[in-house]
Structures are given as structure tokens and as C-alpha cells.
Amino acid sequence: MKHILIGLVHWYQRYISPLFPPTCRYYPTCSNYMLGAINKHGAILGTIMGIARILRCHPFVKGGYDPVPDKFTIFRNKNARDKYRRSMNLK
């Protein structure tokens, strides 16, 4: 199941994504986040995390750095974001 989902995301990245301008507000992109979540948390939890991330990616969100957290959550990884901002001397 995990390999099928990863294959679907790779297919999307190769054939669908190039047809549209880059609009993801987060780093890593939503499709790369989905791949990382599936690899780290498995097919079911990783897919849930990826879908939650896609739903968070809209024009009214600030975006920024949001890596896959070590523990399952559907919310943004604020600790990693804050640590990144401090390391880059951002506010």
C-alpha cells in the first residue's frame, strides 16, 4: 500500500505538477511532505497528514518552513518552524 501511494505521488509530481505554476506556500512542497509523511508514519497516517497539509495550503495562510513531525499530528510543526526562524535570525 505504501509503495502504491508513493508511486501515485511521484506520478503526480512528474505528469500533473509541471502543468501548473508553483503555488505551494510551504517548504517542503505539499507533495514532498506527503512522501515524507508516508515514509515516516506509514500509509494511513501519512496520507492523513498529507491531506491535512494540502487543506492548510491556501492563499490566506502565511506558509513557510513546515517539515514532517516525528509524532503524528494534523497540525503545523510550529517547533521546527520557530527553531528554523531563530537559526536564520528571522522574527
Q: Helices, strands, pairings?
A:
Layout: H1 2-16, E1 26-27, H2 30-41, H3 43-56, E2 64-65, H4 78-87
Parallel strand pairs: 1-2
Helix pairs in contact: 1-2, 2-3
Concise overview:
It comes from Lentilactobacillus terminaliae. This is Membrane protein insertion efficiency factor YidD. The protein has 91 residues and is mostly helical.
Verbal overview:
This protein has 91 residues and is mainly alpha-helical. It has four helices and two strands. A two-stranded parallel ribbon has the order 1-2. α1 packs antiparallel against α2 and α2 runs antiparallel to α3. The longest helix is centred in the first third of the chain and has 15 residues. The N and C termini lie far apart (41 Å).
Largest sheet: 2 strands, parallel
- The main sheet orders its strands as 1-2
Question: Using DSSP, what is the number of strands?
Answer: 2
Q: What proportion of the residues form beta strands (DSSP E)?
A: under 5%
Measured as a percent range, the helix fraction is: 55-70%
Which regions are unreliable across 5 or more consecutive residues at pLDDT < 50? none
Query: What is the average per-residue confidence, as pLDDT, rounded to a whole number?
Result: 91
Q: How would you classify the helix and strand content by structural class?
A: mainly alpha
- The sequence of SSEs as H and E is HEHHEH
Tally the helices: 4
Give the distance, in angstroms, between the N- and C-terminal Cα atoms: 41 Å
Give me the Rg, rounded.
14 Å
Shape descriptor reads globular
